[in-house]
Request: fold
Amino acid sequence: MKFNFDNIVGSMFRNDLPVFDNMDAYIDFLLPHIKPYGESLSNQKLFVNKRWKEFRDDEDFHEAVLYIFQDNEDSSLLLSIDGNIGVGSWSTLPKSNTLILESGGKKQKSELFDLAFLHSDFLILKKHGNQKRIDKKKYFVLGLEKSTGRLDWVDLMEKMYDLYRQNWLFTAMITLFLVFIGIILLSIFI
Reply:
């Protein structure tokens, strides 16, 4: 094998995303890594009046599902399934990162979600209660359509992990730079 400095340095800083069987497992792994880069639901400008695409790891899920949290008197929630619109509402509980989504129509229902992660490109909600016990998904995953619309769910997990990778590499570079400066200063004064 030929010596290649770029490969050696690159492998030192490579931080590949491990492979998991389902989206819930990916998110369980990702959350501790990306949580420091998230926001709270009180920062509504990150998610209101934007088109959010729903992601699922279900092989039978082929619909194009969009959610739009409107900033109006009714806090309307527009739900588009393959272009067919339904209207509901949304609200946050004061002083908490909890979101209530209400769907309208014949099958009206209200659901309580705790915020798992909010970023300009991602909105991950965790439905309250033990969803695994009733064989449901643990997370409700939305990606900003403008930046994630053409991705599948695995690519979305990679994009989320990029948040950690980019920030981890920056922190490592700063640390190495400070260590280098410290060594130079020590050599000057010793």
